[in-house]
TrEMBL record:
The keyword RNA-binding does not apply. This is Integral membrane protein. Pfam families: DUF1304. It comes from Limosilactobacillus secaliphilus. The chain crosses the membrane at residues 56-72, 79-97, 103-122. Keywords: Membrane, Transmembrane, Transmembrane helix.
Amino acid sequence: MEIIAAFLVTFVGCEHLAIMLIEMFASPQKQAEYFDLSVDYTKQRPARIAMANQGIYNGMLGFLILVSYWLLPRTYHLVVTQLLMIFVVVVALYGGFTVSRKVWSMQMLPAVLAGAAVGFCIL
């Protein structure tokens, strides 16, 4: 189960780093495509600023997930990672209701699976 947990947690962390790159550096056309938004919206300066701000949060979250899992002692990394997966699930649940249902399959499902795998490692 440790290998599955490591893979899933790493996937969730890298996914958030990838989301950061899209939110901060992708073209408005790509952002519209990835996030089911209109290009007219993603071209607006306030939208670009908001997405960049959200991107830095996703990047820091991805970084924290990876660092906490791979660098903290086992006793701590399992609990901290479990809490971070709960955080991702709650935020993705809200995002699925407010932005796109796609968030549930793309962000929430991997975090649920990673959290469950880490939970089995704690037992």
